[in-house]
Amino acid sequence: MPVNQPGQQSQRQNPPQQQQGCPNQQSKVPWQGKVNHVTAETASEARNIVLGTFLVKNHPASILLDTGTTHSFIAKAYAEKHNIDISPMKKPMVKPTDGIRVVREFPDVFPDELPGKPPDRDVEFLIEHLSGTAPIAKRQYRVAPKEHELIKENIDELLGKGFIRPSSSPWAFPVLFIDKKDGSRRMCVDYRALNDVTIKNKYPLPRIDDLFDQLQGGCVFSKIDLRSGYHQMKIRPSHIPKTAFITRFGLYEYTVMSFGLTNAPAYFMNLMNKVFMEYLDKFVVVFIDDILIYSKTEEEHEEHLRLVLQKLREHKLYAKLSKCEFWLDQVPFLGHIVSKGGIMVDPSKISRVMDWKVPEVVKEVRGFLGLAGYYRRFIESFSKIAKLMTSLLEKGAPFIWTKERQAAFDELKKRLTTALVLTLPDLTKSFTVYCDASKEGLGCVLMQEGKVIAYASRQLRKHEVNYPTHDLELAAVVHALKI
């Protein structure tokens, strides 16, 4: 496949020049190197390349064979999991704003750390609990000595930023640690008891499918990830004591929104919608603290990106540059890869599905189906394939893992790794819906100009099992129209 084509070369550096009088020394100019970025669309036009996600020892992998490369980059957590020997880079790869078009005009939007407590905003976080609820005070969990050190470090950092303060609250919740993707650990507060008595905020989170439907026509994309987004929203002062958490170092309470609170996503979604309301469904989609900007041309994208960054500056909202991506023709977003050609499953996100061990209890079946079901729009007859496994979720059903269930389990994994690229819908053109019905379930496919936009399916309800064929076919049509 030819490289060095327009749009592929990201960076090129000249070879070093030998300095006069210093035959054994070289200048500080780095050796010649090139980074080639090849899009899926470009690769699909090449005759001598195989596209797709391949299973390597039952793990999904996208493979590039190139005898001219000197280094390959791999996630540390992935390498440790599969016992792959790696060597750390001598110098970290730094992504400065200076060289990024438009972004270089807004260095204040990308600080290394949040500058302090957030300003007063139109939305502030509340914790409204059921009437008659008495303060809840839990005992702290036992933790390892090393974790005590991490707790102390976290407390000192949060105190320094003004995100927490010492507390005398009658409420108290224990802390625990969760593993992050990069292998580090994050301190969290176990607010489950508080969440159980909290009145749930009904502010709607957008449907993922609806967000993707807005992207039709987009050719240039940028993705912005806010830095510790929840910490950029204040808690109403009278509600702060309810966030108190207990440690061996004392009792503290959050002055900003914390992870683990049940209504946090809804409140932050409300804030982001207010900030970007005039741009939503035009060139911006937002899901909690993820912002995706899409444009038809580079000229449009320059204007759109500038407008979004200006909004962030006006509202004193800050982004994490290392997690942002700009000026792309395809971009990972919410577990998918988005491009002008459509949307596809993000291979890096389905590894959890592919690594899922054979379920031994009902809880593991439910977890697998929930995770795989996130991508059901890519899988034709998803409900039909999953039927044997979903029957295990019925109350009182004995757990018997048969050969047929194992085959269905393997088939869902296979379908995910071979899923089609789905076309983004053009709302100005007509659609075609194909429906099918049988005693095993209902299925339909939405198409436009011969290209698949989405699959949908469901199992029959108990009262539908005895329907005659023509009623089942009508039920499939109704199901398709309700989606």
Structure description:
With 483 residues, the chain is an alpha+beta fold. Helix content is 25%, strand content 19%. The chain contains twelve helices and 19 strands. The strands form six sheets. Strands 5-10-9-6-7 form a five-stranded mixed β-sheet, with helices on one face. Strand 6 (173-179) and strand 7 (185-189) form a beta hairpin. Helix 9 runs antiparallel to helix 10. The radius of gyration is 26 Å and the shape is globular. The two termini are 42 Å apart. The model is unreliable at 1-34 (pLDDT under 50).
Low-pLDDT stretches are 1-34
Query: The biggest beta sheet, please?
Result: 5 strands, mixed
Share of helix among residues? 25-40%
Structural class: alpha+beta
How many strands appear in the DSSP assignment? 19
Mean pLDDT over the full residue set? 80
Whole-Å distance between the termini? 42 Å
Protein name: Reverse transcriptase domain-containing protein
Pfam families: RT_RNaseH_2, RVP_2, RVT_1
GO molecular function: aspartic-type endopeptidase activity; endonuclease activity; RNA binding; RNA-directed DNA polymerase activity
InterPro entries: Aspartic_peptidase_AS, DNA/RNA_pol_sf, Peptidase_aspartic_dom_sf, Retrovirus_Pol_polyprotein, Rev_trsase/Diguanyl_cyclase, RT_dom, RT_RNaseH_2
